[in-house]
């Protein structure tokens, strides 16, 4: 739930903040100082609302929930162990995507750009596979 709320707040910047900045930037007679202020305001809001809250905090809690659920599946032997290991490995790959977010604030920090794509795809595969396993569970279990 924390991940959902953080990502939701991060996404809302596109609805409530960015349109206001865009209108100010393209307004007839907008001075260069106004345009520069809009650019700086966007960068600040995007870094805080988007990178910090939506992407970093939101993704970390999503990754944590996937990891904890996978560990529970592994320990309880609810399903075949492959689904748990897929979730654990995916969590590890997906957490590497955080390097890309840190790189936006600290350009010298090494970034593993492909980790975000691979982690996201594997997360979707893991959720779909887990959903199929849940639907196929015998009703008496």
Show unreliable segments. none
Can you give the helix content as a percent range?
Answer: over 70%
SSE order in H/E notation? HHHHHH
Distance between the termini: 27 Å
Strand proportion, as a percent range, falls in under 5%
Largest sheet descriptor: none
Number of domains: 1
What class, by secondary structure content? Answer: mainly alpha
SSE inventory with pairings:
Blueprint lengths: L1 H15 L1 H9 L5 H45 L4 H16 L1 H8 L7 H24 L5
Helix pairs in contact: 1-3, 2-3, 3-4, 3-5, 4-6
Give the structure's gist in a few sentences.
It is built from 6 helices and no strands. The protein has 141 residues and is mainly α.
Describe this structure in words.
The model has no long low-confidence stretch (mean pLDDT 94). The longest helix is centred in the middle third of the chain and has 45 residues, at 32-76. The chain has 141 residues and is mostly helical. Helix 3 packs antiparallel against helix 4 (81-96) and helix 4 (81-96) runs antiparallel to helix 6 (113-136). It has one domain (2-136). The protein is built from six helices and no strands.
Keywords:
single chain; 141 residues; 6 helices; mainly alpha; 0% strand
């Amino acid at each position: 739930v924390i991940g959902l709320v953080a990502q939701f707040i991060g996404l809302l910047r596109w609805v409530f903040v960015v349109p206001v900045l865009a209108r100010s930037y393209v307004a007839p007679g907008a001075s260069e100082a106004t345009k520069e202020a809009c650019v700086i305001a966007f960068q600040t809001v995007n870094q805080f609302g988007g990178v910090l809250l939506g992407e970093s905090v939101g993704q970390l809690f999503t990754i944590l929930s996937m990891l904890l659920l996978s560990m529970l599946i592994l320990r309880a032997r609810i399903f075949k162990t492959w689904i748990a290991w897929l979730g654990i490995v995916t969590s590890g790959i997906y957490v590497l995507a955080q390097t890309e977010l840190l790189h936006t604030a600290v350009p010298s920090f090494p970034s593993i750009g492909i980790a975000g794509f691979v982690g996201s795809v594997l997360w979707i595969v893991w959720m779909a596979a887990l959903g199929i396993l849940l639907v196929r569970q015998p009703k008496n279990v």
